[in-house]
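Let's inspect a concrete specimen:
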Amino acid sequence: MLPTLTHHSPSNRSPKSRHYNTYRFGFNGQETDNEIAGIGNINAAEFWEYDARLGRRWNVDISPFTAISFYACFVNNPIVFNDILGNVIGGDREKVEKVKKSSQDYIESLTKEINSLNEQLSSNKLNKKERIGIQNQIGELETKRNEFRTVLDEIKELEEDNTTEYYIKTIDGSSGSTSYNSDIRRIEITTDGSVELTAHELKHGHQYFKGEINFLTGGAKGYLCDINDEFQAYSRQYLFDPNSLGFLLTVENIRLQTVDEGQPYLSLPGENLTKNTLMKEISLIYNISIPSGAGPMMFKDAYMQLNKAKQILHK
């Protein structure tokens, strides 16, 4: 039985309708807020205030989707979509944990190697050439360890991103993809379940988080995607398993890769395109600035203007 509290009047009587239950949690673990709109009508969580009668948010969404509503909640379907706090990587979460665990194991192993080499350096038995060789080894191992630490930092940023949902899907086969599902408005990361390929696609997810890539409404790669983004993702894959590539890691070799019977990287721009570089170039040419929270259409228009300006400048 759940505990209850009773308000008493000065005459020590229990006034009618002032008896209430201390249990305040309702649908999907959200806290009921009966003072706002009556019993059971408003639920609240860390990022939501949800009106159960209207099927919408009571507060404005911090990540508005104008195609639905600035007040949409759970894609207007709280039965199917029940992200309780709005701040998780959904889907096959186990695959993300495998990447984190593998990174932690590598960090621990590399730290032991570095400590062992540092002990050798403290010895007086080494000549100058041997000492330089060990110092170079330590430098390489520290660089690799820092890369694994970066993997953990990037995953943490995705986990703490309160404006975008990242969803992991595992499929049969040996390929992966990262795309935007415009129907339910989320980044979908598809992987074969291997640590190296999951790490590759999570890198693309983080590139989206940092404004280094974007996706068009249908989910296809957008105007910010360039060959450098793929090089970073393949480098991340190589970090976990060099043998998984099957080719020498160079930009040109990546361009020639065949994916699903096509060569999607052939036409990718060679320049490093990001929201920041795009804003700088546009402001230099047009003497205008784009706000940091600008939507994709503004960037698309600006990008087209920029290309037009470049063509004029190069004539």
In short: Residues 1-12, 14-20, 311-315 have pLDDT under 50 and may be disordered.
